Amino acid sequence: MPTVAPLDLEGHVVAVHFLGDVPFFATAAGTIHRLDGGEKVTEAHQGLLTCIRDPFSATLISGGEDGKVLRIGQEGSTTLVADVPRKWISVVAGGPQNAVAWAHGKSSFVRTSDGAVREFPEERTVEGLAFAPKGLRIAAARYNGVSLHWVATNAPAADLDWKGAHNGVTFSPDGRFLVTTMQENALHGWKLDGKAGENRHMRMTGYPAKVKSLSWSPKGKWLASSGAPAAIVWPFSSKDGPMGKAPQELGTRADIMVTQVAFHPAEEVLAIGFIDGMILGVRIADGKEALLRRPGKGAITGLSWSSNGKLLAFGSGAGDCGVIDIAA
């Protein structure tokens, strides 16, 4: 079994990410701990609500109960992106050309590299944000669908409609598909590369719980999800994605729910975190499983691979965290 270097933190860990080979652990209290020649702490927020890794730069982006949006560098430095007093910032996204997005209420906001901020109002509360992999375009998840906005133009939004509450959103790495997590224990997808006006729907249902964690495989052939007693992995390699296809179920454990999923950065290997703190590694090709961590004190709330894929960091709702050396 791989070796585990433990890290015990106070309280709930909201997210875990690597910047290079340095693991970061963000707590609900607002502190961000990194293991970089010893444990170092950044006091980021008065109450932290979200912390993501910017897919377009080697930084983290966080939002808090203090109304602040921060960009956090590899040495723990913080840069203030936005300060919105008396608003809770629970939705952020990182985009191309140093763009950052955040949302509160019925609007999303994008700050571009020149410091300009644009507001994109919606008819309903914005619950999720994601930038397209190419071009400066933002997707805002809301009730009854998603709005797609070009940031640099005044073109009207493209609306992708589907009834129900959409509370998270992600683009496939090639930009051909858009997928949302829903309030009703389901995913919904749209195929974006069809003819004009032909954004075909993909319904991905049957989950016993809400899907709170998604991860694309390195080349976008698979989308893994939590929300069941196995990782539910949908195929996206064909031109129509998962339409008419059944998902794979990996790491099945009777009645023990998957809470986090994270694909290896280079291989089709999935790390799966469970509600009892256990972590499995599973190979897509043959379903072969490896026990990476035995059950712990709390549900796994964050999983992240180092850039070289040799280390896997994890965090939990009880604060028992650590780094797994896969190569050991």
Overall description:
The chain has a single domain, classed as Methylamine Dehydrogenase, Chain H, CATH 2.130.10. The strands form 7 sheets. The protein has a 6-stranded antiparallel beta sheet, with no helix packed on it. Strands 1-30-29-28 form a 4-stranded antiparallel beta sheet, with no helix packed on it. Strands 2-3-4-5 form a 4-stranded antiparallel beta sheet, with no helix packed on it. It is mostly beta strands and 328 residues long. It contains no helices and 30 strands. This is WD40 repeat domain-containing protein. It comes from Neorhizobium lilium.
Brief overview:
The chain has 328 residues and is an all-beta fold. The chain has strands at residues 3-8, 13-19, 22-27, 31-35, 39-43, 48-53, 60-64, 68-72, 78-83, 91-94, 100-104, 107-111, 117-121, 128-131, 137-150, 158-171, 177-182, 186-191, 200-204, 214-216, 222-225, 231-235, 248-250, 258-263, 269-274, 279-283, 289-293, 300-305, 311-316, 320-325.
Question: How would you describe this structure in keywords?
Answer:
four-stranded antiparallel sheet; Quinoprotein_ADH-like_sf; 328 residues; WD40_rpt; WD40/YVTN_repeat-like_dom_sf; mainly beta; 53% strand; globular; WD40 repeat domain-containing protein; six-stranded antiparallel sheet; Methylamine Dehydrogenase, Chain H
Q: Tell me the name of the CATH homologous superfamily.
A: YVTN repeat-like/Quinoprotein amine dehydrogenase
- Please identify, by name, the CATH architecture: 7 Propeller
Strand content: over 45%
Briefly, what CATH class? Mainly Beta
Task: Kindly give the count of domains.
Answer: 1
Number of strands: 30
Radius of gyration: 19 Å
Quaternary structure: single chain
Catalogue the unreliable spans.
none
Reported for the largest beta sheet, the result is: 6 strands, antiparallel
Organism: Neorhizobium lilium
Protein name: WD40 repeat domain-containing protein
InterPro entries: Quinoprotein_ADH-like_sf, WD40/YVTN_repeat-like_dom_sf, WD40_rpt
